[in-house]
Amino acid sequence: MSATTDKDLVLSVRNLKVEFPTRTGLIKAVDDVSFDLHRGKTLCVVGESGSGKSVSARAILQIVDRPGRIVGGSMVLSRADGTSVDLAKLNPRGGEIRAIRGREIAMIFQEPMSSLSPIHRIGEQIGEALRIHFNTPKAERRARVIELLEQVEIPRPHEAIDRYTFEFSGGMRQRVMIAMALACNPSMLIADEPTTALDVTTQAEILALIKRLQTQHGMAVMFITHDMGVVAEIADDVLVMYRGKVMEHGPVEQIFHAPKSDYTAMLIGSVVKLESKAEGRQGRVAPQMAPKSLLEVRDLSLTFGNGLKAVDSVSLTVMPGETLGIVGESGSGKTTMGRCLLRVYDPQHGIMNFRRADGTVIDLRTAQGEDLKSARREIRMIFQDPVGSLNPRKRVADIIGEPLKLAGLARGRELDERVAALMAQVGLDPAWRERYPHAFSGGQRQRIGIARAIAVKPRLIVADEATSALDVSLRSQMLDLMMQLQDEMGLSFIFISHDMSVIRYMCDRVAVMYRGQIVETGTTEAVTGSPQHAYTQALLSAIPNPDPRDRRLDARVRYQEALS
Amino acid sequence: MSQITQLPPSGIDQADINPKAADIAVAGQWKLFWLKFVKHRVAVLSLFVVLFLYLVAALADFIAPYDPNQTNARFTYAPPQALGLLLDGQFDPHVTGLSMTLNTESMRREFAPDPENPVRVGFFVPSAPYTLLGFIPMQHKLIGPVEAGPMTSMYLFGADRLGRDIFSRVVHGARISLSIGLVGVFMSLVLGVTIGGISGFFGGVVDTVIQRVIEFLRSIPTIPLWMGLAAAIPLSWPPLQTYFVITLIVSLIGWTSLAREVRGRFLSLRNEDFVIAARLDGMSEIGIIFHHLVPSFMSHIIATLTLAIPSMILAETALSFLGIGLQPPIVSWGTLLQEAQNIRAVSQAPWLLFTPAAAIVISVLSLNFLGDGLRDAADPYEAHT
After folding, report:
1. What is the pLDDT of residues B128-140, one digit of tens each?
2. ∠ at Cα B198 (B192, B201), nearest 5°?
3. Which value does ipTM take for this structure?
4. Smallest Cα distance from A386 to chain B, Å
5. Which domains does chain A carry?
């Protein structure tokens, strides 16, 4: 498969099977999975949620959550001195596997927030593995930890070693985790979605760090991700999983450019589709800056009670029928800004002039009572979280019908018919209207949320990260649905996202937010094609490119402020 | 997007995710609540025990063979008599008779089993007329000696120093002891939901004041507080009035934890996306409270209430045991235990202690298990989401 010799083989997994006996039956989380890991090589395990990719990784260290258990297969770990051991045969609580964990095979997790202990100094946490495995004396341990912190590029390691977890940002915590994993010079590193919780620029830093350390230490890396872009950037070999089974296994070049399995092709297709503008939008001219804008925001500012300036003199314009994208990383204030438009928060300064259907202009910032209520019927919101935004105790028909009922637009049989029509419009079977939200998948729930938003025939929809909780294969479907509704109903969208690809796919114009301010606005083509602001350039260059022949991250630019 | 042919649908979102669960799909919160509850075996068993105990309390007049205050000087400190169903190979329910000798040295009545003279026991035996549940006229008891009279004895759980039947007294005591929990909890509910709701809804200064008051109340040691309040009840008050005041006293502390629970739910739910969505839909704050917030924490409230009943029962027992709660002639488990306070009673007639204590332990345990099961089921959506 690859040009490496057996000498470089670190781990050989054959026919691994992990099962979860549950009340409703046996779940085969990992079903007959085989792969090899070689020194200095990266194997990416890719799949959507529930594909068994994390369980496979955890099985290697025998840390599968109960009631899961390994029921078959072998996992042979080969050591440099020529000995080898079958991990599958070890007692999960025995001394042998404990001696391997952290020392020969290290793991880093997805959530940097919860995988570090908040009550220990980071120096102690990193040094713990050294104490357990080598009983290193205290002074020597400290020196080694400082050296590790230097390796993972944490600034001022002499001070950082005595700090607590909460004093670090997410990216820095993930660096601490990596330092911890490297403490005993493991021959293999398992990284379970280590960058999923991070911003794209931080992700690029962490990916580069892992790559550099891998070369230095000659580790084998097993990298679990759902992001095909990341796969293309870092993988040597790729294992595509779906529902516990291996769909395809091969070198990254082959996976991306000559996929053998339909599933791989579908996955790559849905990512590549988002690399360019939607077909229906390609010829579309952005609505001109007519004097009759739909929404005009001037110098909007919101300072929270704790002094945080979440929105700082933001000005933007939305034309009728236009889709304005707002892109930014976490903490940029984009969600707060979107919520200000609906007065979920009350901004202190500025103007939000909204042109009503009858032509009158209302300042949403100062609107009260009935004015605000009727304006909220024209501006609606789609939420990020498809679980939290639907009351689990209400039937779907009640959820979608609620705005209609409250607006006094329909009742009784007419309400029923309107709800059925709305469900059909967003691609849900109207026969399901007696069901509760728990009977729907994430994508279907998001459709319910969309139906609720369009129920009162709004003119502007604020979509806050409406696709980020969904698997990539569903994202473009959801975006296509929104564009179809836009064409049918003449809607305008404010589309808030951290993901440049969905912005590029859908939006006419885009505004880039950074620390509460809008640093750049322009047509999507102009901003993505030739970004002017240094931050936009850094942001764009940090986005992984789903093509292993053109690895973009190697040539990324850094924005100095973004590193702090 | 390229279609997948052989695989089950993933990217395609149209699929009915789990056709088996079609009835689950249309199950509302109470049905899910129940489905999750019945998986907790111990809790379901406890539910039956609790229902049985309350049934006994409601039908105490019918079940208890004697009036709880009926004395019999012949049988002071009579030991428990076991109920046998077969006599001489035939079905003939009976208890072994007791032969009594007066020990003149210790001046005690001493009882020995007398198998020669079994006391015949019948079901649905006639009795003096009484009204069941206050409105059904009855002339029969569930169980009793066939030939009732001062010379026959049927003391299933023994008799006390006045020859009163412990079984009848425990059955009657269940009325007071189990209902004081319910009434006390109901009062806690009213106070807790109102005050906690106000605290969570208005927030700010109101919230701060209420929370400080709750903290103050919780910092007072409960037993001395109850003692102080109970001591203030005039002895001349009729028993029923005392009963209600005692309930008030034990629920005085109980509402604080409930108020906190309600406030916490309010605060966490107010920021849920679906509440914001309802507000954007144009729903009024009152509408949000009653359509979204209250249904969301109702199941939690029920679980918390169930867990509060046993503490009320224990509080009443403690007060009565100390002699500052209910007073004889009112019969409650607490006053029954009071009888067992001296060492003589315990050494000579341990059934005075063990029978009411067992009743308390069984009811408190089963209510706790029941509450546990309800609490685990209170959020049935965790597993489904």
Report:
1. 788 877 778 878 8
2. 125
3. 0.78
4. 9
5. 1-104+190-275 (3.40.50.300), 112-183 (no CATH), 279-390+458-545 (3.40.50.300)
